[in-house]
Amino acid sequence: MTTISKETVERVANLARLEVSDQEAENFAKQLGNIIHMVEKLDELDTANVEPTSHAIEVSNVLREDKSIAGLPREEVLKNAPDKQDGMFKVPTIMED
């Protein structure tokens, strides 16, 4: 069984810029070790005759036809704009040259 050490948890936490106490690191190491143990148990299964799948159930997307429709008139869109110029929204400058 693969184990995760407290030191490994602390190293990963440091890389992720997470602060964990000693007790949390010990708990995480134990929990991650249990997860890895469960995943390793899957290796014991005979999957030779099992087809690869991406979903457990059949999935289908319902897509609408891609067709162009007329949008709102420009005047209608801009009527509530706080500031506009040359038929477009005017926004404050956030970057200088």
TrEMBL record:
Name recorded for this polypeptide: Aspartyl/glutamyl-tRNA(Asn/Gln) amidotransferase subunit C
Enzyme Commission number(s): 6.3.5.-
Gene Ontology process terms (BP): glutaminyl-tRNAGln biosynthesis via transamidation; regulation of translational fidelity; translation
UniProt key word ATP-binding: yes
Reactions mediated catalytically: L-glutamyl-tRNA(Gln) + L-glutamine + ATP + H2O = L-glutaminyl-tRNA(Gln) + L-glutamate + ADP + phosphate + H(+); L-aspartyl-tRNA(Asn) + L-glutamine + ATP + H2O = L-asparaginyl-tRNA(Asn) + L-glutamate + ADP + phosphate + 2 H(+)
Organism: Listeria rustica
GO molecular function: ATP binding; glutaminyl-tRNA synthase (glutamine-hydrolyzing) activity; transferase activity
Top EC class for this record: ligase
Membrane-spanning intervals of the chain: none
Classification lineage: Bacteria, Bacillati, Bacillota, Bacilli, Bacillales
Gene field: gatC
